[in-house]
Amino acid sequence: MRLRLIRDDGVVLIVRATKKLRDRIGPPDLRGDERSTTVLGEWYATRFGWRPDVLLLVNEATLLPVLLPLAPAATALSRAADHIAAAMATHGASDAIIAAELEQMLTHRIGTTANRSVVGIMNEFNHLADAYRDRDMQSNLDELAARLASTPCSPLHRTHISPDRAFTALVHAIPR
């Protein structure tokens, strides 16, 4: 387990959570002037009411999905950074980019959802995950997230088609 220090120097990950998730993790604490300092930008989050509950994070810029167990809900967003880093590695991000992103995720703030398109994609991922899970009960959350990442998404239809391709393009555009 990695020790993380709490800091308040403007370095912050913004997670825009649905009400269904905020009921479990706590109220919004996002200040009006705060912006995400991560290269990937803001993440949207909801929970799947499975047994056990699962947290779905979706990156606003690329629509890359990340899944992890919600329990314990109080630490879910703190644990999310490691899962995001693992998904970044799976999709080809360099160690340097992942380390820089993790540095920016030391502090997180919860906000309300603001992009209906991303909320719609989360709903679609929920339906697809239910269908994939029913067919293959043995798949783990990382495999399921990778499968969702290859799904064509309408907000990406004029550019990269699917979240995995959008993420790869974003990572390759980052100056090294």
Could you list some keywords that capture this structure?
single chain, 176 residues, alpha/beta, five-stranded mixed beta sheet, 6 helices, 5 strands, globular, disordered N terminus, DUF6933 domain-containing protein, DUF6933
Helix count from the secondary structure assignment? 6
Main beta-sheet annotation:
5 strands, mixed
**Which overall shape is indicated by the principal axes computed on the Cα atoms?**
globular
**How would you describe the oligomerization state of the chains in this entry?**
single chain
| Percentage of residues in DSSP E strands | 15-25%
The chain-level structural class is alpha/beta
Q: Provide the helix percentage.
A: 40-55%
- As residue ranges, the low-confidence spans are 1-8
As for the number of domains, it is 1
Number of strands: 5
* Main sheet strand line-up: 4-3-2-1-5
> Mean of the pLDDT scores?
88
> CA-to-CA gap between the ends?
28 Å
* SSE arrangement, N to C: EHEEEHHEHHH
Rg (C-alpha, Å): 15 Å
Task: Sum this structure up briefly.
The chain has 176 residues and is an alpha/beta fold. Helix content is 41%, strand content 15%.
Task: Describe the 3D structure.
The protein is α/β, with parallel strands linked by helices and 176 residues long. The chain has one domain (13-173). Helix content is 41%, strand content 15%. It contains 6 helices and 5 strands, in the order βαβββααβααα. It has helices at residues 19-25, 76-90, 95-104, 116-135, 141-149, 163-173, and strands at residues 13-17, 43-48, 54-59, 65-69, 108-112. A 5-stranded mixed β-sheet has the order 4-3-2-1-5, with helices on both faces. Strand 1 (13-17), helix 1 and strand 2 form a beta-alpha-beta unit. Helix 2 runs antiparallel to helix 3 (95-104). The longest helix has 20 residues, at 116-135. The radius of gyration is 15 Å and the shape is globular.
